[in-house]
Amino acid sequence: MSDEQQLHTTPRVARVLMTEEAIYGLILVSGMIVVSAGSTSLVAFLTVAITVIVFYAAHVYAGTLGRLAVSEGQRGLGSSLAAAARQSSGMLIASVAPLAALLLGTTRVIADDLALWVALIVNTLILAGLGWTAVARWSTHWWARLLSALLTAAFGGVLILLKAVIHH
Fold first, then answer.
1. 8 A C-beta contact, residue 120 and residue 32
2. Beta strand spans in the chain (E)
3. Is 64 exposed, middle or buried (0-12, 13-18, 19+ CB in 10 A)?
4. Residue 69: strand, helix, or coil
């Protein structure tokens, strides 16, 4: 199956999560959780949600301008905006799981501090899964997949260590 055929048979959410924007979004969310840790999960939830929306809007804006510049305006504003919004959507989708974990703390289903840790761990596990899956698309070697999973998860792991050092 060609790359083009595989792209069209992969579910949309999986395609969106396999983008640099999604990986960047997960790392951004982890960083925002670390920065807002020490406060309530509600503060962390609002901080993360607002930051992700602002970064998404900035990504869409930059992508739109870039597409217009490359096409010298021939692509059109609407087309450029729609393409940039689709390309950047991974940032929004990737933030759903950690925001859900923070919401558990906000609604007192779990303790605030536990919600922050769960969100960070969930992010790191998702990063590992994305690293594994990305390499699995082009390599059958388990060691290459594992190495990619570990390297991708390391971004989240570093932020978990930072939270542990700063807030404990």
1. no
2. none
3. buried
4. helix
> Which positions ≥6 away from 98 have C-beta within 8 Å?
26, 29, 30, 33, 48, 119, 120, 122, 123
Give the angle subtended at the CA of 130 by the CAs of 124 and 136, to the nearest 5°.
140
Read off the tokens for 152.
């991708």
Q: Which of left, alpha, beta for 101 (phi over 0: left; psi -120 to 50: alpha)?
A: alpha
Quote the pTM value.
0.81
Strands (E), 58-140: none
Please state, in angstroms and rounded to a whole number, the distance separating the CA atoms of residues 102 and 6. Answer: 34
- Residues 6-25 have pLDDT tens digits of 545 556 666 767 788 888 89
Question: What residues contact residue 1 under an 8 Å CB cut-off, 6+ apart?
Answer: 9
Helix or strand or coil: residue 110? coil
Separation in Å, CA 51 to CA 3, 18, 60: 34, 21, 14
Tally of residues, the chain: 168
Task: Give dist(CA 13, CA 81) in Å, integer.
Answer: 20
Condensed to tens digits (0 to 9), the pLDDT of residues 85-112 reads 998 999 999 999 999 999 999 999 999 9
Which is nearest to 52 in space by CA: 8, 109, 115, 99? Answer: 99
